[in-house]
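Supplementary Note 3. Input sequence used for the single-chain structure prediction.
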Amino acid sequence: MNAMEQSIFNASQFQMLSDDILQEAKREGASSAEVSIAANKGFSVSAHEGDVETVEYNQDKVIEITVYFGKRTGSASISDVRPDAVHAAVRAACHIAKFTDADPAAGIAEKDELALPYPKLDLAYTWPISVEKAIELACQCEREALAYDKRIMSSEETSVATLEALHLYANSNGFIGFYPYTRHEISCVLIGKQGNEMQRDYSYTVASNSANLESISHVATRAGERTVRRLGARRLKTTKTPVIFMAEEARGLLGHFIAAISGGSLYRKSSFLVDHLNKKIFPSFVQIQEQPHLMGALGSAPFDEDGVTTRANVFIEDGILRNYSLSVYSARKLGMRTTGNAGGIHNLVIKLGDKNLPALLQTMGKGLLVTEIMGDGVNLVTGDYSRGVGGFWVENGEIQYPVHEITVAGKLQDMYTKIREVGNDVDVRGNIRTGSILIEEVMVAGS
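The predicted structure, written as discrete structure tokens, is reproduced below.
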């Protein structure tokens, strides 16, 4: 057990608490039970106009209890760890279960599916930073960002945040596991002005290890550069054109794919990829897999929310859909086996090409570079896609001018098949790791 577990969270106490809950559920007559404990502690500070604007501390724990009486389920959630409160929650969950309808798919994971044993991953890196130092860094970031260009009118917010957390899961099939993790972030949001026009943009850095955060100066400069480049934005005429989704926005395209192959969407028949297993979804060069055990990665986890071992799932092989993303429950609903994805994907990775963003722009020649996506215009049932975007118009492989107030529209299934290249400018600031994505042709609606 490392220093973080000892100083911030009493993992041994949580283990004893989970065992007590499981035993209480058994005494109440439950045939099986499971408990999940999430605890976190941290703070965030924000600066505005050269001074501290907010300081927020957080220290939370949530205990989720689920009991089963055969195939009937009851659940309760509490944050109070006093024995009386815990036992009352277990009894409440048991009471609920006695009045619910039986669900053939209900129940905890089978023993042969559980992560016994599970890998120990290095996901926790305490950032020994004081609130005073965090305020100093936030003010420095704001100061350097405002000095980047005279057209930077003000900062909307500059913040520094740190979080330490512990996740524990246990069930009555003999599984108990826990792992600590951390998340640290610096962000800067700016407002630029030119004439009567105002534009907003931002930059941020996030990592589980503070040593991997980009410098304050880099965040400030990048925020300033992005904000200034948006000034002078124009609207485009409605047209069909090649489009590059910059890496941080390309994550969303892959996120919609993952949502469409998730078990919940599939058994509810609310996905455009129902019955698409072993069918071609992407061009043959596209390979997409899950890598849940990357050391220090933000999406890594040794086991999922069912206590099932996470694994290197292959979702897309040579453009073909090879696996769905399934929890124990959704797998049973579909008559399949869990893929260790209760709670979602852990580090989705697409195979990168050999071109950086400037080289992708040269390949595209003429078209739209999307650097911002707004709104929620995605229908997973049909695949219809319509999102407001901002970015840059490109000609002769070079950025010509910024654009705004336009919409990219189409069907996701068509957009996926028309992917031409994936860049090597991978963005690792999240659970989906991809480079920029060039799509052959998309409808862009403007003036």
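Residues 233-447 form one domain. The chain has two domains: 3-229, 233-447.
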